[in-house]
Amino acid sequence: MESLKSYAKVNIGLWITGKRPDGYHDIVSYVHKVSLYDVINIKPYIKLRVRTSNPNIPENEGNIVYKAVKAFEDFTGLEANFDIFIQKNIPVGGGLGGGSSNVATVLKYLNKYFNNPLSEEDMLKLASYIGSDVPLFFKEGLVKVSGRGEILEETKEKYNNELIIIYPDIEVKTADIYSKVSYDMLTKTEDLNIINSLLRDVKSLIDASENTLGKIAEGEFPVIKEVKNTLEFLGYKPFITGSGSCVCALGTASEKLEAICKTKNWKLYKVNFL
């Protein structure tokens, strides 16, 4: 059996630039992996089996990892029978990409296990077919994501700052937040040009960034706004990742913040950019 680390991501800014005929949205976002991770235990088995430590996450056919393995089989013509158990540490519905990361981690393992039948280009195509967020987990450092998430540009920047992530113990469904995007919320791509000059300094990037989905989420879920307000009151510069519900901030957690999180039943994660 092998144990694989499946890392989370955070979005530093997320803008919606268009609504597509296929039901998806065109976005621009800057994404970086962080040191919070799930552990995936995988070994050959008599059939494909996918389970998790979280009873609220579907197993087997209902799990996105199961669907990804089946897609890998269809793409390669190989039979991939494995027992896959996912120890979930990344909060579900927090905007940290846990499920997409799990998919990417398993696909990379399978390709290596079967002596790389798929090229990097084919792997990215397969990943994009499974989910919009999956391809970014094949990249390192700060990545610019556009299109519906399948267009990736490596920026050559890699942060190593400490980061606070607060999960207010609510699950946000990304599709529900996207469904509330209106045309007046769209950002013109030319208005984002200044962002590219700020990538070397994560603090400047955070200061200049906005998150269209995050604004919707905090309007729908007052507790997300409460977390943001708490961080701002304590002197942090908070930002929402993905469509929420997690709120992030650079720096270390003060004793006062830790006490507030404990009282409010918010989960506090102390991580680093990878």
What does this structure look like?
The chain is built from 8 helices and 10 strands. The chain is an alpha+beta fold. It has 2 domains: 2-154, Ribosomal Protein S5, domain 2; 162-272, GHMP kinase, C-terminal domain (Alpha-Beta Plaits), CATH 3.30.70. Strands 1, 2, 3, 4, 5 and 6 form a 6-stranded mixed β-sheet that branches. The chain has a 4-stranded antiparallel β-sheet with strand order 8-9-7-10, covered by helices on one side. It is globular and about 55 Å long.
Question: Notable features of this structure?
Answer:
single chain, 274 residues, alpha+beta, Ribosomal Protein S5, domain 2, Alpha-Beta Plaits, six-stranded mixed sheet, four-stranded antiparallel sheet, 30% helix
Mean pLDDT: 96
The CATH class of the largest domain, by name, is Alpha Beta
**What structural class do you assign from the helix and strand content?**
alpha+beta
The tally of structural domains comes to 2
Q: Based on the structure given, which CATH architecture of the largest domain is correct? A: 2-Layer Sandwich
| CATH fold group of the largest domain | Ribosomal Protein S5, domain 2
How many E-type strands?
10
Beta-strand fraction estimate: 25-35%
Largest sheet: 6 strands, mixed
Measured between the Cα atoms of the first and last residue, the distance is 26 Å
Question: Uncertain segments of ≥5 residues (pLDDT<50)?
Answer: none
Distinct helical segment count: 8
Specify the overall morphology. Answer: globular
